[in-house]
Specification:
There is one protein chain. 24% of the residues lie in helices and 22% in strands. It is built from ten helices and 19 strands. Strands 12-13-14-15-16-17-18-19 form an eight-stranded antiparallel β-barrel. It has a seven-stranded antiparallel sheet with strand order 2-1-11-10-9-8-7, with helices on both faces. Helix 1 runs antiparallel to helix 10. The longest helix has 18 residues.
Length: 461
């Protein structure tokens, strides 16, 4: 291994800190068992577990119910439909699934929990009652399914993801579970993820709040609600899924599409400290570190899967208790332990290849009015624009086939940057969404909007 390459093997001190954190979680959370895994650089670099049962504890191959992490799997299926051109995220649901009772909401609103639908189904608690009580979407949504105007705010909705599961079934012509298995689970090798438990699996338990005794929880088949919370999985499978959510995988979903899932699509609920919700993913900030993931719970189980794209670290925590262990908090703590103790090595600087055509004339200092900006072209083909010595907007751009540049980030995301040339072919100025950047402040030779005073720069007379 190159001396500057990152060694994925964790230091003994880091491994001990990880083991200590889940030991505290299991002890203080009074959980029958806790199992966890950490992924770095696309590989599982640590696994650990704690159990109240003597002998062999659970490992990364033992199934637990993962609750609402199921929603992220469902979102991946919907994004695949979008990428195949079978739907647009702006489409109203009724275009593809008419008669549901929520025809006017968009698919994007359902994915981001901003459709205004109720948080839960009408009637008895759906997580602990037979699916036969909700044979159709009418029973899932009820007579008054809306609590808010669609698009007006984020409001977490389990029935919303039931609608997305039914949408997948309508467009695929097969059950949600079958579509998930053939399109996501099998390509990624998630052979221990399933809609129903497969041995070895943990039992779900309720722990008495005031005495150290337990009671088994029922494991109901969720029926139509399956797309919102049915899945059973393992830490090893969820670790592989976390790699997909970080880097993408062309067999399932591109890096660009998973990046879209990780982007905020709805603001946080008022009063919450998180960063809102993407497309099937929760967003959070942990001491300045941007995190993406999802929590999950069903009677007898809690789960958390969280990742940091910047650190290329993800963590998964599963426990078989109804409450007591904050699985998402433990997962983000495990992630932070690794990222803080063993920060990621930056990629080595590399120059352009000798054969590359590098438009050096774009590089250097440009002025928007009197504000200096630098343009730097990196060997990965990304052009970076940013202010020099003043406050202003920064952005990154990717070359387009027509010779222009398309904004990737910030205010200029999606906007076009054009290099405008004079009749003799020399570079005149840059045009960025109508903003003219010139080689000198208010260059009189460039078409500066509003014109340039013919007397030019001068002092006080």
């Amino acid at each position: 291994m190159d001396a500057l390459s990152e060694d994925l093997e964790l230091l003994p001190s880091t491994r001990r800190a990880l083991s200590h954190r889940i030991a505290v979680a299991q002890s203080e959370g009074r959980a029958p068992s806790v199992v966890a895994a950490v992924v770095r650089g696309g590989q599982v670099v640590w696994e650990g577990s704690r159990t109240s049962v003597e002998g062999h504890g659970p490992d990364g191959d033992v199934q637990y119910r993962v609750g609402s992490i199921t929603k992220t799997f469902t979102a991946v299926l919907v994004m695949r439909l979008r990428d195949e051109g079978l739907l647009a995220l702006s489409d109203p649901l009724g275009k593809h699934l008419p008669g549901s009772g929520a025809d006017e909401v968009t698919i994007a609103q359902l994915l981001s929990h901003s459709a205004g639908l109720a948080a839960e189904t009408p009637g008895e608690w759906w997580e602990r009652t037979p699916a036969a009580q909700r044979p159709g979407l009418a029973e899932v949504l009820g007579e008054k399914p809306f609590k808010h105007t669609p698009g007006s705010r984020h409001h977490y909705s389990n029935p919303g993801y039931t609608l997305l599961g039914s949408l997948v079934e309508a467009l695929r012509g097969k059950p949600w579970e079958e579509a998930l298995r053939t399109e996501v689970l099998e390509p990624l090798g998630l052979h221990r993820t399933s809609a129903h438990p497969q041995a070895p699996h943990a039992g779900g338990w309720a722990v008495h709040p005031w005495a150290d005794v337990m009671m088994p929880e029922p494991a109901e088949d969720l029926g139509l609600m399956a797309a919102a919370g049915q899945l059973w999985s393992t830490t090893r499978d969820l670790a592989r899924f976390a790699v997909l959510l970080t880097h993408g995988d062309e067999r399932v979903l591109s890096a660009e599409s998973v990046r879209e899932m990780r982007t905020s699509a709805a603001p946080p609920e008022p009063g919450l400290a998180d960063l809102g919700y993407g497309l099937g993913l929760q967003l959070a900030d942990q001491r300045g570190r941007r995190l993406v993931g999802h929590g999950g719970s069903l009677p007898g189980f809690v789960a958390g899967l969280w990742l940091s794209e910047a650190d290329d670290v993800a963590a998964v925590v599963l426990a078989n208790c109804t409450s007591g262990v904050a699985a998402s908090t433990v997962a983000t703590d495990l992630l932070a332990i690794v990222a803080d103790a063993e920060p990621r090595f930056p990629a080595p600087w590399l120059p352009f290849a000798e054969a590359d055509q590098v438009p050096l004339e774009l590089c250097g200092v440009w002025y928007w009015g009197t504000a200096a900006h630098s343009v730097r072209l990196k060997s990965d083909g990304v052009l970076e624009l940013g202010p020099v010595g003043v406050t202003g907007r920064s952005a990154r751009f990717r070359a387009a086939p027509d010779g222009t540049w398309t904004g990737l980030t910030g205010y200029y995301a999606g906007e076009t940057l054009r290099a405008v040339r004079r009749e003799d072919g020399s570079l005149s100025h840059l045009d960025l969404a109508s903003f003219v950047f010139t080689r000198e402040p208010y260059d009189p030779q460039a078409p500066v909007p509003g014109g340039v005073d013919p007397q030019g720069w001068r002092g006080i007379g």
